[in-house]
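Thread: Newbie trying to understand structure tokens

Hi all, I'm a second-year student working on a class project, and my supervisor (Dr. K.) asked me to get a predicted structure for one chain before our next meeting. I've only ever worked with sequences, so writing a 3D structure as a token string is new to me. If someone could post the tokens and maybe explain what I'm looking at, I'd be very grateful. Here's the chain:
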Amino acid sequence: MLDQAISVLLEFLPIYAAVYVINVFLYFATGWVLVQIQNRHPERRIQPNRRGEKRMWKEIRASVLSLTVTAGCLAGGIFLSLKGWTLVAPLELSWWSALLMFAVSILAFDTWFYWGHRFMHTKAMYRFHAEHHRSVAPTVWSTYSDDPVDAFVMQSYYLWAVIFLPIPIPVLIVHRLWDHFNGTIGHSGFEFWASPMSRMPSPMVCVTFHDQHHSRFRYNFANFFSFWDRVCGTIDPKYDEQVKVFEQLGQDDEAKSVAPGE
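---
Reply by user tm_fold:
Sure, no problem. This is what the structure looks like when written as tokens:
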């Protein structure tokens, strides 16, 4: 029994190590690229009177630690699927199965994230979520600035999804990449994505959505979409209005960029 457990562990560790290293690399690489873009557009800062950058090193230390949990969840999901330790077998990979299961996974994760996030805001669990909310003005470095318990609650989706959903491993990995880039941009504190597609009646969101969650705390709990927040009455009442403000800023910038050539 012990030999079998050691054998399984030795199989799992290389997968875990690779996933962790890739996660850390993407954390720093994506953050660095976004900072270069943001430095050129200070007018796009969502909270102009706050500077979250002063917490950068604290956020980085917390993120490097919490990524051990996030990587463990994704590596665990990959390992379970590879070993066949699931309730359903993954669909054979094809263009239609990839698109279908990516859509299913995104919707399932957003539901999991919304209710898990609400759970972390309860009195019993908030002590594990408080670390993330110390970043009142979020930055690209605060994306994974979580307590390990908080990280597990939110990221354990990657463990159970492969057990109950027929998700091929490549689709699960693409979902995780999407979540990484979406999360890092969503924590950037700079709005470049405001458009009519990120406010009513569209269920899509932009950076302002999660930034308001950090600054106002009681609103905007979902991840990819505003659906659950609108249905459950937790959408920030100023969200759509603020999106329109950044829409206008984008239109003004576009007008300035074409003016010299006219």
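A couple of things are worth pointing out once you decode it. The radius of gyration is 20 Å. The mean pLDDT is 95. Feel free to ask follow-ups in this thread.
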